[in-house]
Amino acid sequence: MYKNKLAINGGPKAIEGFEGKGEPKIGNEEFLEMADTWGYSPETIDEIRQAIDKEDLGGGPFLVGYKPQSKVSQMEAYAAELFNVKNVLAVTSGTAALHTAYVAADIGFGDEVIVPGYTFMATAMAVVVAGGIPVWCDIDESMTIDPNDAEKRITPRTKAIAPVHMSGRVCNMDAIMDVAKRHNLMVIEDCAQACGARFHGRRIGTIGDLGCFSISSYKPTGGGEGGLVMTNDDKLHWRARQWSEGGGLWRPDRYALPRWEGELFCGVNYRMSELAGTVNLVQLRKMEAQLARKRTNKRRVLSALPVYHELQPQVIHDIDGEHGNDLGFFLETAAEAERLVSVLQAEGVGCSTRGRSDGRDWHIYKYMSPIMDKLPATSNGYPWRDPKTGEETPIEYSPDMCPRTLDLLSRRVGVGLNQWWTERDCKQLVAAMTKVFDALYTRDSNYENWLEAVTGEMVKG
Ligand SMILES: Cc1ncc(COP(=O)(O)O)c(C=O)c1O
Hints:
This protein is an alpha/beta fold. Helix content is 35%, strand content 11%. The strands form three sheets. A seven-stranded mixed sheet has the order 1-9-8-5-4-2-3, sandwiched between helices. A four-stranded antiparallel sheet has the order 10-11-13-12. Strands 6-7 form a two-stranded antiparallel ribbon. The N and C termini lie far apart (99 Å). The chain binds pyridoxal-5'-phosphate. Residues 93-95, 119-120, 122-123, 164, 190, 192-193, 214, 216, 227 line the site of pyridoxal-5'-phosphate.
């Protein structure tokens, strides 16, 4: 009788437990698959297998954020300290970071964002996806946004400027912030190609309202796919969090009513995976050393290279802040730039120019057909057309709207520098360049060396 008494009334529980015992959902096999991705030999993988099979993983890793051991949370905290910024949000890519930042900045239908004509297309595409309109502006001799031209492109509809720190260079952030302040605009920095660079002591991405980073394998710091959004503004940060994770796992109680006005709105899921977070935590730890190696070699080359009348050095806004991926200068014509590149390459110097080439390229505005031809994802034409009224937004794109950008790109020569070069490698490069330049051009004795020409610093080579 007692046996049949319901447990709720004090009888014995019908189920005390089950015999079957499972394995962790994510365990050694997944770990070993990663070892294979890393490229270890079958013999090494076998040794790793023997070593790790002895471990009891319990339930195994869950590979999800918001746990004390979450690598993504650790990476966000580490980045906040490294960049000296209040808030860091990890997302799935640099494009996702831009999309998130534009939404956080409340860029929406009818709002214009000024974007340099030389960038990767994502800077402009993400404006469109957010519902805004990208407006191209020219770059200057720094190969980054021209603050004067950006100012000329401002209209009553302009809401933000998106300076892009291209190829490890840094924009003139003082001038950009000045324009933005005078016109009451937001500044959303695209730092995808220059993670860790500084402008006058401050990390880029922490000077404007929001900073967007790509930390994918193609970028100086990063592995797999990933992005970061940084801001010192709490409100922008919480808007970015809600957008990038509309399901609300980031909230202490995800189903709670809004804790402040505007906390909740419809969003997506751009949450970074734990695997990407793991790799990128280590990548960020390596960042400073990488930057130091790059800057050392750039200084070695620039302080030993003479200056020539026919070669106009590229403007550098912060010699010790930028990455220093290459040494850039301009020839008088695109044909001259092409000729010089052939001569340098014959000596073994790694260099390139766009020259007179008219090939399609997602880094030059005139080839970015999804923008130039106003091609949104939906057939109603939004955001270039108001779906309700059918009215077109007052923006026209034409291939010649940023002539200076096209001119500079065609005449620029970039000589690649390498962080791993020894002092001897740097001297070898300088000797090769000097051999070619002395044969073709005349030295400019006003300067001791290239470093003095670009910085005004008197440094003996
Ligand atoms: C300037 C710039 N912005 C944004 C992105 C987009 O980053 P991701 O490829 O991580 O989406 C890139 C990537 O190449 C980039 O170079």
